[in-house]
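Thread: quick sanity check before group meeting

JM: Hey all, I'm pulling together slides for Thursday and realized we never actually wrote out the predicted structure for the chain we discussed last week. Dropping the sequence here so it's in one place. If anyone has concerns about the input, flag it before I start.
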Amino acid sequence: MATNRTPGDNRRHGAVKQRSQVFNPKTSQWVKRDINTGKFMDVKQDGTPFKGVRKEK
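JM (edit): ok, ran it. Output follows.
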């Protein structure tokens, strides 16, 4: 999992492990998935991608 080192730094250090995201064109939203189980975890409501989470091809 990514870490946030200094409070108030407003940036993430490292990538989020064991997660990926994919764009759903039907709803125009990004969906986060667990790599191990393949289950969908979260949906981003504002239409922007998750920060620090790799994108699936």
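AS: nice. The CA atoms of residues 19 and 34 lie 5 Å apart. The first strand starts at residue 19 and ends at 24.
JM: adding both to the slides.
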